[in-house]
UniProtKB/TrEMBL annotation:
Its main location: nucleus. GO terms for cellular component: nucleus. It holds the Pfam family zf-RING_2. This is RING-type domain-containing protein. The keyword Secreted does not apply. The keyword tRNA-binding does not apply. It comes from Solanum chilense. InterPro entries: CHFR_Znf-CRD, E3_ubiquitin-ligase_CHFR, Znf_RING, Znf_RING/FYVE/PHD. GO terms for molecular function: ubiquitin-protein transferase activity; zinc ion binding. Keywords: Cell cycle, Metal-binding, Nucleus, Transferase, Ubl conjugation pathway, Zinc, Zinc-finger.
Length: 459
């Protein structure tokens, strides 16, 4: 038997881009760091004499490599013979051996390491004075932007200002320039800048007591429309007419429904699904925000107020935002199993072979979820610990929840429910975090990816 080893000096500053992993654990892995590496083999265990075995050259697509046979024998790549001096393309998951494994030859599996997606940075210089809130004079915290003047404030500072304006029943003026504020929302781009500044100069951070106080005042979770001036004259509405955006009103602006009518200081929320407005009301016991994504949705609110859509006020149908327990699911969400179609098909087949329906399986797992039998650390929703089957979520968040539950359905499945060819697949080391599964069909088919990563820097 022959032992493989890399003949080129390993450079510590170079990253390992691929590995040859022996199927026999008595042999060690060969790490490939250089673009071109000649692999040598010892002729016999005792001898120090070495022979070239093969040369592996990384292809520019970073997705495959060329393997050239430098030995005096045939090399097998995925059971295909590669003659002396000939070359073959190898991909992640390809198996290379000097001869048939039943004759005692070691087999190596070629694995390409997932690469960090190349990030693009632009360095900018910024006067931190521009990143300060004019109410508290500190660097913004959870920055919100007021429109149309586009001045920026801490969420907590502006929320407090908003509350006091509403108490006075006056229109909301910008604390900085006194312009009437029609709209305020969190600014995610500036939020990143806010965090970069504090990272660069920690002395600008404020005390944790200040932060707690600010956060407790902060009430702006999704874009707020502060004034809805009603247009007296009929005008054609076109999306390009920016002024018209502030003239949209909600059904309760015009008419009293459920014993409530908006007034001029009513704060409105904009529904993320239909774009319509609803009054922001914290004391009616109806969810106006999806707990999973913190965005506003109108369906549950209008349902509770007995308001149906009309031509002048298109509203969302109740289906778009309702409790998890009342939803139905007819197909596996495209997000499931990290969008890996092979795994989605396996799950579908498996449910069919068990004689069950997807709805039935999901309902069973929602029950386990409610009983807190499932670890929620990797659940891709906000406020994961607060969510129950009575929580209303938007359709997107529901799909995320179903995908999360289907992961648990699969990892706890007894293997005899899987087709034999699916059950015998080995787990990919990178598990659900594997990137190769998205661009290498062969790899996605050969390895199981509904499992935890056991290698790499994945959490
Ligand atoms: Zn502030
Ligand atoms: Zn302003
Ligand atoms: Zn209204
Ligand atoms: Zn809506
Ligand atoms: Zn949501
Ligand atoms: Zn939240
Ligand atoms: Zn993989």
């Amino acid at each position: 038997m022959e032992k493989g080893e890399s003949s080129t000096p390993t450079l510590s500053e170079d990253e390992v881009w691929a590995k040859l992993i022996p199927t026999d654990s008595r042999y060690s892995e060969i790490e490939l760091r250089l673009k071109e590496t000649v692999i040598c083999s010892e002729v016999k265990h005792s001898s120090s004499e070495k022979q070239d075995w093969c040369k592996i050259t990384r292809n520019v697509d970073l997705d495959s490599a060329m393997m050239q046979n430098r030995s005096l024998k045939e090399i097998l790549v995925d059971e295909t013979v590669v003659q002396e001096e000939h070359a073959a393309v190898i991909k992640c998951g390809s198996e290379i051996s000097l001869g048939p494994s039943d004759e005692g030859y070691v087999k190596y599996r070629f694995e390409i390491m997932p690469t960090e997606e190349s990030r693009r940075y632009i360095q900018i210089y910024l006067d931190v004075e521009y990143a300060k809130c004019c109410i508290c004079l500190n660097i913004w915290h959870d920055v919100v932007t007021a429109a149309p003047c586009l001045h920026n404030f801490c969420n907590g500072c502006f929320s407090e200002w908003l509350r006091r304006s509403q108490e006075r029943r006056s229109s909301v003026l910008c604390p900085h320039c006194r312009a009437v504020v029609h709209f305020v929302g969190r600014n995610h781009f500036l939020h990143n800048i806010e965090q970069d500044i504090l990272l660069a100069d920690p002395s600008l951070k404020r005390s944790s007591e200040d932060i707690v106080l600010l956060d407790s005042n902060a009430s702006i979770k999704s874009p707020l429309v502060l004034s809805s001036r009603k247009s007296s004259r009929k005008r054609e509405r076109s999306p390009s007419d920016a002024a018209d955006r502030w003239e949209h009103s909600c059904p309760q602006c015009d008419t009293e429904y459920g014993g409530y009518q908006c007034n001029e200081s009513t704060v409105h929320l904009q529904c993320q699904a239909c774009g319509g407005m609803m009054p922001s009301r914290s004391n009616v016991g109806v969810q106006q925000h999806c707990l999973g994504c913190d965005r506003a949705f109108c369906a549950a609110y209008w349902h509770s107020q007995g308001v149906n859509g009309s031509n002048s006020h298109p509203l969302c149908s109740p289906e778009t935002f309702k409790p998890i327990a009342e939803r139905t699911v007819s197909r596996i969400p495209s997000l499931a199993h990290e969008k890996n179609h092979y795994e989605q098909n396996i799950t579908e087949r498996c449910i069919r072979q068990m004689g069950r329906s997807l709805q039935d399986v999901v309902a069973e797992w929602i029950l386990k979820f409610d009983k807190r039998e499932i670890d929620r650390t990797r659940m891709p929703l906000n406020h994961a610990e607060m969510i129950t089957s009575r929580t209303s979520t938007c359709s997107e968040c529901y799909d995320k929840l179903v995908s999360f539950l289907l992961y648990w359905f699969r990892v706890t499945l007894i293997s005899h429910h899987l087709a034999p060819e699916d059950a015998q697949r080995q787990d990919c080391w990178y598990g659900y975090a594997c990137r190769t599964q998205h661009h290498n069909q062969e790899h996605a088919r050969k390895r199981n990816h509904v499992c935890r990563p056991t290698r790499g820097n994945h959490v």
